[in-house]
Amino acid sequence: MSQPESNTRQENTPAQAPTPAPVSFYEKHKVIYAKRVRGFFDNWRIALVLFTQIIFYVTPWLQWNDRQAVLLHLVERKFYIFGVVFWPQDVIYLTALLIVSAYALFLVTAIAGRLFCGYACPQTVYTQIFMWIENWIEGERNARLKRDKGPRDAAWWRVKASKHLLWLVFSLWTGFTLVCYFTPVSELMISVRTGNLGGWEIFWIFFYGGFTYLMAGFMREQVCKHMCPYARFQSVMFDPDTLIISYDAERGEQRGARKKGVDAKAAGLGDCVDCGLCVQVCPTGIDIRNGLQYECIGCAACVDICDQVMDKVGLPRGLVRYSTETAMAKHLSSKEIVSHIIRPRIILYTAILVLITGLAAWFLAHRIPLKVDIIRDRSVLAREADDGRIENVYMLQIMNTEEQGHRYRVTVDGMPGAEIDGENEVDVPAAALHGFNTVVRVPPDAGKSGANPIHFEIVSTSNPDIRVREKASFLLP
C-alpha cells in the first residue's frame, strides 16, 4: 500500500518552472570592418574632407596686417578675424552666428536629412581620415579581417603599432592646430622648440588630441549612435518630403542571388541580389534595406556600391538612392521630388535665415569702430574750482576697434557754458583701449541742484564719421 501512495504523490507534484535566461540591456559592441567604396558620393565626401581640413590646418598660418589672420586671443580679449577685430562687447555677433548656424542646420536637415553628418561633421571627417590611414597600413577589409583572426605574431604587432603611431601623430597635430587659434602660432612654435609650453596649452593639445584619437580611432560609430544628440532629435526635423537614403523595396524584393541568364522575374526575384555589400560599406554597420534608422548618417556609401552592383548585373541604378517617403510611395519623378521640397517649413527656415544673416551683415558693415565708457568719479561728488565754476571728474574709456591708430577729440554739451578743462584730444593706438580722467566745468547757475544730464561726444579727427555720443550726469550742489 505504501508504494502506490508514494508514486501517486510524485505524479501530483508540479514540475519546476525553467530558469529564465538572463537579459542584457546593453548591446554587445561589434567591430565594424567597413569596406572601401569609390563612386560619385564618395568623391564628394573626399572633396569636403580635404576642403574642411585645409581650412582648419592652414588658416592659423595665414598673416594679415603683420599678425595672425584668425586669432581668438583670450588673453587680450580680442578676436581677430582677418580685417575685423571683435571685442567682448561684440558678443551679439557671436549670438547671431550661433542662430544662423542652428537655422542652417534645420534647413539642410529638413531638405536633405543628415547631409551634414555624412559629409562635414568632425566625427565623420576624422573617422574617414583615420580609416584612410588604416587602409593604407593594414589593407582593405578582407585583409584586416584575416589579420585580426590570425595569430598575434610580430608582423601583427608591427602593423598595428605603425597604424596607431600615425594616428597619435595626426591627433597631436590636430590638438596643436586647435591651440594655434587661441595662442599666436609664432609664440606657440617658439614655446614648443624651447620646451616652455604653458600648462593650459599642454592640457588642450593633449585633451583635444586624445579625444580625436579615441573618437575617430576606437569609438567611431558609437559616437553617432549613442553620444550624438542630433541622431536622437533628427526624426522631429524629418517629414515625408525629406530626402533620405532609401531602399526601393517594391523593386528589390524578393531579394536573392540568381544565376547568369536566369529570368529573375520568372523566378519571383526582385532586383536586389542580396550581395550584402551595402552592409559591408556602411560605417555604422546597418542594413539600409530595413528602412530608415537613426544610425544612418546619410553618407551614401551604400548608394555608390549598389549602383556598381546594378551595373555589373545589367540592371538600372537607383535601387538604393536619395529619395523621400512620398516619392517612394507615389513613384514621383525627380522633378516632382524637387517641387515637393518647397513647403511651409522650408520657406520659414529660409526666411529666418536670410533675415538674421542680412541683419547681422548690415550691422557688421555699419559698425562704428569706436566704443566709449564714461564713469563719473563718485569719490568727489562736485567741487568748486578757483574761478568759481563747479567741476565734476569723469573717467573715460575709449576703445579703438580698428587696426589703425586714431586721434579723438572730446567735447561736452547739455548745460550752458559746459566745457572740458584741459586737453580735449587723445591718441589711441590701433585695436587698443585707453583710459584717462577728464574734468568738466560749468557755471554755478547752469542748472538745477542735483543731477543734470550732459552728453560727451567723441569724434575721430581724421574721419568725422567715426563718432560716439554718450550720456552722463553732472552734479550741482
Describe the 3D structure.
This protein has 477 residues and is of the alpha+beta class. The protein folds into 2 domains: 29-367, no CATH class; 370-476, Immunoglobulins (Immunoglobulin-like, Sandwich). 45% of the residues lie in helices and 19% in strands. The strands form 5 sheets. Strands 8, 9, 10, 12 and 14 form a 5-stranded antiparallel beta sheet that branches. It has a 4-stranded antiparallel beta sheet with strand order 13-11-15-16, with no helix packed on it. Helix 5 (122-138) packs antiparallel against helix 7 (154-180). The protein is elongated, with a radius of gyration of 35 Å.
Mean pLDDT: 88
What integer value in Å does the Rg equal?
Answer: 35 Å
Number of helices: 17
Low-confidence runs (pLDDT<50, min 5 residues)? 1-13
Number of strands: 16
Using brief descriptors, characterize the structure shown:
single chain, Immunoglobulin-like, 4-stranded antiparallel sheet, 477 residues, 5-stranded antiparallel sheet, alpha+beta
In short:
The protein is of the alpha+beta class. The protein has 17 helices and 16 strands. The strands form five sheets. Strands 8, 9, 10, 12 and 14 form a five-stranded antiparallel sheet that branches.
